[in-house]
Amino acid sequence: MIEPVSPTVGGAASVGFLALLVGAFGPVAADVMLVVISALAGCFIALSSTKSQSVLQSVGFVVIGVTVSLILSWGVMNLVVSIIPQLNTPYTPSLIAMGIGFMSNQLPALFAALAVKFKNKIGI
Question: Is 11 a member of any domain?
Fold first, then answer.
């Protein structure tokens, strides 16, 4: 008895659909992946300087560092580009994400200093 749809037809259809998705979202996904890889590289460099952490603590450090890098990189890029328009390149968010990831060890102290400065500014 003949099957109505063979697995090879379903596989070819899904590969064709995947090729359409890659063609449609490829440029956006490439920019995002470049920023993610840059943030990971920066976090791994910062992680290499820490002393005796467990695997779970290291994974948490990398996840938090990459998340903060991704959130801040495009915002900082927009601020920098508004000041210096010549830096509006596709690689600017990647460089900023790598820098933020590289500073992952110092981020709590940096955020605390910014909070103190903000509190002093508003008079709390």
Answer: no
Nearest alpha carbon to residue 25 among 14, 37, 33: 33
Length of the chain in terms of residues written: 124
In a domain, 3, yes or no: no
Domain membership flag for residue 8: no
> Which of the 8 DSSP states describes residue 122?
H
- CA dist., res. 27 & res. 15, Å (int): 19
User: What does 3-48 look like in DSSP terms, one character per residue?
Assistant: -SS-HHHHHHHHHHHHHHHHHHHHHHHHHHHHHHHHHHHHHHHHHH
Task: Report d(CA 98, CA 112) in Å as an integer.
Answer: 21
- Reading the chain (124 residues) residue by residue, the pLDDT tens digits are 555 555 544 444 555 555 555 656 666 677 778 888 899 999 988 888 878 788 898 899 889 888 988 888 888 899 999 999 998 888 888 889 999 989 888 888 888 998 999 999 988 7
Is residue 36 domain-resident?
Answer: yes
Find all residues with CB under 8 Å of 66, minimum gap 6, and list them.
Answer: 36, 39, 40, 43, 101
